[in-house]
Every structure is written in C-alpha cells, then in structure tokens.
Design brief:
Strand content: 15-25%
Structural class: alpha/beta
Largest sheet: 8 strands, parallel, barrel
Radius of gyration: 20 Å
Distance between the termini: 29 Å
Strand order of the largest sheet: 4-5-6-7-8-9-10-11
Shape: globular
Helix content: 25-40%
CATH topology of the largest domain: TIM Barrel
Order of helices and strands: EEEHHHHEHEHEHEHEHEHHEHEEEH
Number of helices: 13
Number of strands: 13
Amino acid sequence: MKVSKATTRVLQTPADNPLVVGVPQEGTREFVTLELDTDQGLQGIGITFFGGPLTPALKAAVDDLCGLVIGEDPMRVEAVSEKLRQAASGAGPEGIFTLALSAIDIALWDIKGKALDQSVCSLLGGCRDRAPTYASGALMRPMNLEYLSEAGPRLVASGFRQMKTQMGAEPTAEREVARIRTLREAIGDDIDLMCDINQLWNVNQAIDIGRRVEEYHLFWLEDVVTRDDYQGLARVADALTTPIAAGEYVYGIRPFRHMLEARSVDIVMIDLLRVGGITQFRKVAGMAEAFNLPVVSHLIPEIQVHNIAAIPNGLTVEYMPWTLRLFEETPEIVDGEIVVPDKPGLGLKFDQDVIKQYQVS
C-alpha cells in the first residue's frame, strides 16, 4: 500500500463554544485539514491549526511535506515521520514545521488503524475504552463572577465532573482569588476544578496567589509562568501543594526532557499539534511515565481521546469543543468520561457539508 494523493483545505469557522451560554463569541478560527489517500482506497484524515495571518503558510507547509509522502508506505508511520523530520531538520522543531508534520502523522495513524481494523487507541496500547474529560473554554477570564456562578453548576448538570477556569487578568490578588472562591462555592467540593494562567504570572505572583487558593483544592494550576522557565516552574511546584501542569506551549519532545529533569511540573500537558503528532505524543507520555507523572491532553478531544485512553498514565482529556462541527460524529461523553470510538482508525469523518460551507482555500 502506498500514499497516492493528499488534499488540504483551509477552513474558517465561527469562534464559538457550545459550552458557553448567553455570551457573544466573536471572531473566527482557522484550520488546515488533510485527507490522505492510498492506492488501496483507504483514506486518513488529519488536522492542524494555530490561527493568524500565517495559516496560508501552514497549508503550504503541509502541502510540501505531503509531496514527500506520496509513494510511501503509510503503515511505516515512524519511518515517514523520520523522513520528514530529516528533510526539514534545518527548520527546527518549533513552529510551522512541527504543526504541519502533525497533520500528516495523524492521518497516517488513521490509515494504519483502518488497514488493521483497529482503533488508533488499540494500536497505541488500548489501556481503556474511555477516559475522564473536563469542560474547557466555558469559564474564561473575561467572564464575570455572576456568569461563573451560573455556568459552573450548568456544566455539572450537563454531566461534567471536571472543569477548567482561568486567572491572570485581574488587577489584584484578591480579585483573582474571588474567581476561584465563587466557582468552588457554586459547584461544591466534589467537582474537580482546574485553573489556567496562560503564562501571565511571574514566579512570585504564582506562589503568592497559588497559596491563597490552596484552600479551594484546585485539581491543578496550569502554565503559571513562561513556558521555558523550567527553574521558575520548579520553584512554584515546590512551594505549592496544588499540582502544577504545563507543556501545551512546548514544541517537539526534547523540551519535555528538560522540564521533567528540572522537576518543573506535577502533570505533563501535551499539545498534539505542537509535539509533532501521535508518534511524538506517545514518546513524551513514556518519558512522563518514567518520572511517575500523569499526562493530560490539550485541545482536539476527538483525537486526543485515543492518546489518553491508550496509556496507563493518561489522566484526563481536555474537552475544548472547537473542532466538533468539522466531523460527522464525535466521541460520546458518558458519566463524565469521553468514549473511544468503536470504529477503525480515529473513528472520524470530516463533514463534507461543513467543509464546503467554511472552506476559504
């Protein structure tokens, strides 16, 4: 079997989130989609994105890398990924190259699963057929306390046992703490509550505010300082009892080694696109397991469910529903867990009507 054709598209969709109710959601999101065909009639799908004016350049990068994949055996995923890494080695792991590689790697795993009549989760280890998932994007920092107090219980009523909010934009520490206090009082003590800072604090702020919110028992504090300040992260992790999560902003696998060796985090978060795809995701997950640390996913729950459910140290899947509309069917959520599709490969198909509606190139 050989790869025979690659089709890429740029889609521009509304920047909404179905978990958000009653709040206008302006703007758009852009995605690059990939359909990778073989000479035996199998097709794998992939996706990548980062938004902004470089989306056309990202599509071009996917196209150029796909040109190197035509004629290759899609079953040899590691060999194809290595070929692409060698061909673009001068570009380094960060940025457009790794994002483009990810789309291809995802599509190759989809083909391999279909060819072997197994889910990607099964191919990766198949530890479970489902994984815990948390509601993300519904409790963002622009939203006021009144909204948080209403939205938190609404997410619980819809079946979520975990959810994530944000801090990092309030002018005082007390107002930051008020966001967490409001949510904890609204949802009760039995719901896991995470909080993302998106690199907006310095080390001293993180320790100060982190100590103030410890009484509210956060499941984790995420990306509290700049992504590559591994020593700073380690200082925060050592000072707080609340677990520290980080990794979504990291490109490739090598920075995770530095993060783990510095004991910077308690929970390893892996962005599927920035790490380089499924092939690289599982390598980072293995490193984390060697350090006795759990792994969590970032974005694209429809695909990430395979990665997290496949491994013994997969903790939870971020349910950020930005990409839901792109697929005909998406994984079910049952009792606060996201279920691995029982179909070969990723178990996903692009909704061609949606593709036509939002395609811009």
